[in-house]
Design goal:
The chain has no helices and 5 strands. With 68 residues, it is mainly β. The chain binds zinc ion. The site of zinc ion (ZN) has 8 residues, from loops.
């Protein structure tokens, strides 16, 4: 029995980057993963909240049942 517990962070650890606040222009540190915000950050200057940007989920097309 092989333990197949893969580390959850195998798809990339969050990177800390500075993003300009769209409201006041302040540089705010946000956590990015694959170029998307993966943790909420609050602008220390104006309180703007950088929302988490979820990855687009690719939903496989439903295969119609061959029910006849
Ligand atoms: Zn701001």
């Amino acid at each position: 029995m092989a333990s197949n517990n893969r580390c959850a962070g195998s798809d990339g650890t969050p990177k800390l980057e500075e993003r300009p606040c769209p409201v006041c222009g302040e540089e705010v540190e946000v956590f990015l993963r694959k170029g998307r915000i993966c943790e909420e950050s609050i602008c220390p200057k104006c309180g703007y909240k950088f929302e988490i940007q979820p990855e687009p989920v690719i939903v496989p097309r439903e295969v119609p049942d061959k029910a006849e």
